[in-house]
Amino acid sequence: MTHYVFPPAEQASVAVRGSSARYAVSRIFCVGRNYAAHAREMGSDPDREPPFYFTKPASALTPSGSSVPYPPGTQNYHYEMELVIAIGAPVFKVRPEAAQAAVWAYAAGLDMTRRDLQAESKAAGRPWDTAKGFEQSAVISELVRASETGPLTRGRISLAVNGVTKQQGDLADMIWNVPEIVANLSQLYHLQPGDLIYTGTPEGVGPVMPGDVITGEIEGLSSLSLTVIEPA
User: What residues form DSSP beta bridges with 7?
Assistant: First the structure.
């Protein structure tokens, strides 16, 4: 039996619709600028260049319906509404036409971002870790199995703050679709069950403050909500 100096952290996991079993999470990958209109609003060229990625720790996972404190170190805390992929089979260096078989489930997610810290990192050519990988920055709804939804190639994606729509688009607007993302990422990593992929956000990102309620919808999936509260 292994003995630890301190008790290990609880296993990060996500609820699964219609099941008491949970999906254990080991890694969270995020695709940057995967909607052309969002790339433009962030000052980038939306040409179909190879996708790029950043990561969040699994400990950043936060279930839909949570109340989270406004995070420290920022004056510009942003939402980004995203489709999330849950991998369900080992996959490495696969082609797009075979990648869909590795997708086990989907969810709605929020990539919460300290936008001012991201801007500072971009300007200095530094990593985005402090802007993206902080506590409670990966919000997620329950997973819905791909066997129930079928491949998600299109469908409305939207977000509202206090009932006012801020983001609205279609999954068909993604520059890189689900199989292409999985195939591309599999060239760089041995993907495994337990890997989540946040697939990018439509245009309309913006700030929230304590007291704001964020709600998100992706057609065919469970809805998502998050309440921002005063700093801890």
Answer: none
pLDDT of residue 42: 60
Hey, what are 199's tokens?
């697939």
Half-sphere exposure of 156 (CA within 13 A, CB side): 10
Quote the DSSP letter at residue 49: P
- Give the tokens for residue 51: 């996708």
Amino acid at 145: R
Residue-wise pLDDT tens digits, 156-172: 999 999 999 999 999 99
Please state the separation of Cα 73 from the chain's center in Å. Answer: 21
Are 99 and 183 in contact by the 8 Å Cβ rule? The answer is yes
Q: How far apart are CA 61 and CA 88, in angstroms?
A: 18
Nearest Cα to 216, choosing from 107, 131, 115, 57?
107
d(CA 70, CA 73): 10
Smallest Cα–Cα separation from 152: which of 178, 190, 181? 178
* pLDDT score at 65: 98
Single pTM value for the model = 0.95
